[in-house]
Amino acid sequence: MAVLEVKNLTKKFGAFTAVNNISFDLREGEILGFLGPNGAGKTTTIQMLLGITTPTSGTIHYFEKDFFKHSQYCLSRLNFTSAFNNLQGRNSVWENLQVFANLYNVENYIPKIKKLINRFEMEDFIYKSYFDLSTGQKTRANFIKALINDPKIILMDEPTASLDPDIADKTLTFIEELRKERPITILYTSHNMSEVTRICDRVIFMDKGLIVAHDTPLGLTKRIQIAQLRLTFNDKKDVIIKYLENEHLDHRFDGAHVVYITTEEKTLPKIIFDLSKEGIWMTDIEVKKPTLEHVFLQIARGEKYVFQ
Amino acid sequence: MFLHEIFITKHSFEIFNDIILFPLFTVIVFGYMALYLTGSTGKIIADQVLAGMILWQVINVAQYSVGVGCLWDVWSRNLTNIFISPISIKEYLFFFAISGTIKGLIVLMLTSIFSLIIFQLNIFSVGFLNMFFIFINLVIFGFSFGVVMLGLIFRFGTKVAAFAWGLINIFQPLMAVIYPVAILPQPFRSIAYLLAPTHVFEAMRKSLSGQVITLDIWRAVILNVIFLICAVIFFRFMFSKSRETGQFARLEG
User: Fold this and answer.
1) A89 to chain B, minimum CA–CA distance in Å?
2) Which residue from A14, A252, B95, B194 has the fewest beta carbons nearer than 10 Å?
3) Ranges of chain A whose pLDDT falls below 50
């Protein structure tokens, strides 16, 4: 079942079209990655999904209800966390969470807040003012706030931005564990491709306001048929050069004993076999396959492939 | 939202300063000025000046509660979190109306007690019912003015944030807070009478002189109802424009 359905969503700011007629859905229990270079229209889309920016045209339905006609119904069932938003800085974490529990009409919220605080190991910081927390502690406080109403959907806008790798990893682990506990649906924007590959079931790529790709992370990487072969050899560089030129293979040497060959993935075994037959002694072979980052760079830069 | 307000107030000396200390010191300064005037103009005029300043604090605090109340969340980058919760605009504005009324009442009570103890002015000598109508009118005007400021902040961002605590003072001379409207030049009098507080301050002065104030209060009520409706329509328009232009989302950025 689609818990979020977006149809023909467009946002224009004067002559500039930030989001151009996009449609997608979000199914119950899935994590959808929302990717794209800066200015792609991701944030504007999120803002429209939260109701803080009105679309020029198009519809947004949460739980099969029109968001703009039933905004309070929808908002009570979703929540949001972002690296770019804070809670009230002067209030303590405990006070902030009480405020949001009240705003979301959460019944019997004290034990619930305590449970979430324990879950996020925030016991030592609950009476500190929000502004006095470290970035990692703020992120955890934001997560608790985002879970206070048991949301069916959470929109996460770069939640791990500006976190150190350890805290970012803990955050992702938390999302993975949360997902095991209950069927939570997440729309996740990030610039970190490894994060997206790790936790997202599907990925939407946006560029210049349009959805330019929509697939699973694996499906997207398979769109790039190119791979890169890194060979370390002992000698006979001239033989290798002659072979690569005869075969018209894209290549680059790195010093006297390393060559990078960029070509279609399916031809790699043949290259290794041919060079071996030529008497080349290969001491190291490394195959670099395309990642989501390469897909991102390919879309962002408009290049055929982007191995360096 | 009430918890939110209580917690922010608890942690912010600025709020204590703006709604308690500053009004008290203003009233004390004007109280001593009134004492000085007593010698040359008589106690009635001096009392009218002091009472005017006490009531002015009510407007000021009521309007301040709306604009600055919202700005605390803008400055903290918490406004999006508030607006994506299931709170409606009506509830949001209603909260500010109640908050402004409570703060206005606190300011009125504190400054009245001070003026009674130090300057022997019992502002409630106008009668409790009269004071009730005077207070409600001032709060409604202050709230409506605050709602207009809030609309401007949503529409134009924090570059107009200073309006939240400063713009009301531009209207103070027109409202004849501490002097009769008759003092104003003729063209300004017509404008002054379009503002509900002008009639309230005139009513207060009449009441302290023992005159009937029913007509002035009714005029103020009618003008306030019109202003309140216009303020809410203006706010809704500005809020809608703010979401349409993306300014709302940029408020925190």
Assistant:
1) 6
2) A14
3) none
Nearest residue of chain A to residue B71 (CA atoms): A88
Residue partners of A232: CB distance under 8 A and separation at least 6: A257, A258, A282, A283, A284, A285
Distance from CA of A85 to the nearest CA of B (A): 5
Residue B20 in contact with partner chain A when CB distance is under 8 A: no
Question: A58 near A10, Cβ under 8 Å?
Answer: yes
Q: Is B9 in CB contact (< 8 Å) with chain A?
A: no
The Cα–Cα gap between A228 and A250 comes to 10
ipTM of the complex model: 0.84
Helix (H, G, I), strand (E, B) or coil at A100: helix
**For B143-169, how does the pLDDT look when each residue is reduced to its tens digit (9 = 90+)?**
999 999 999 999 988 888 888 888 888
Question: Any CB–CB contact under 8 A between A100 and chain B?
Answer: yes
Of B11, B246, B253, the CB nearest to A13: B246
Whether residue B77 lies within 8 A of chain A, CB to CB, comes out as: yes
Q: Given A72, A82, A98, which is nearest B88 (Cβ)? A: A72
Share of chain B above pLDDT 70, in %: 98
Q: Are B96 and B66 in contact (CB under 8 A)?
A: yes
How far is A67 from A9, CA to CA, in rounded Å? 13
Characterize the bridge pairing of strands A31-35 and A202-207.
parallel
Rounded distance between C-alpha atoms, residue A82 and residue B80, angstroms: 10
Please indicate if any CB of chain B lies within 8 Å of the CB of A90: yes
Q: How far is CA A202 from CA A25, A35, A199, A223, in A?
A: 11, 11, 9, 14
According to CATH, the topology of domain A2-221 is Rossmann fold (3.40.50)
Q: Is B211 on the interface with A (CB under 8 A)?
A: no
DSSP B86-103: S--HHHHHHHHHHHHHHH
Question: What homologous superfamily does CATH list for A226-289?
Answer: ACT domain (3.30.70.260)
Domain coordinates of chain A in residue numbers?
Answer: 2-221, 226-289
- Given pLDDT bands bounded at 50, 70 and 90, which one contains residue B240? very high
Mean of per-residue pLDDT scores for chain B: 89
Task: Convert B5-22 to b/e letters by CB count within 10 Å (16 or more is b).
Answer: bebbbebeeebeebbbeb
Per the prediction, chain A carries an average pLDDT of 88
Read off the DSSP letter of residue B230. Answer: H
- The answer to whether the CB atoms of B11 and A85 lie below 8 A apart is no
- Look at residue A182 in the predicted model and tell me its pLDDT: 80
What is the Cα–Cα distance from B201 to B185, expressed in whole angstroms?
18
Rounded-to-integer distance, Cα A129 and Cα B78, Å: 14
The rounded Cα B121 to chain-centroid distance in angstroms is 22
pTM over 0.95: no
Position B125 pLDDT exceeds 60: yes
Residue A195 Cα, gap to closest chain B Cα (Å): 25
pLDDT recorded at residue B253: 56
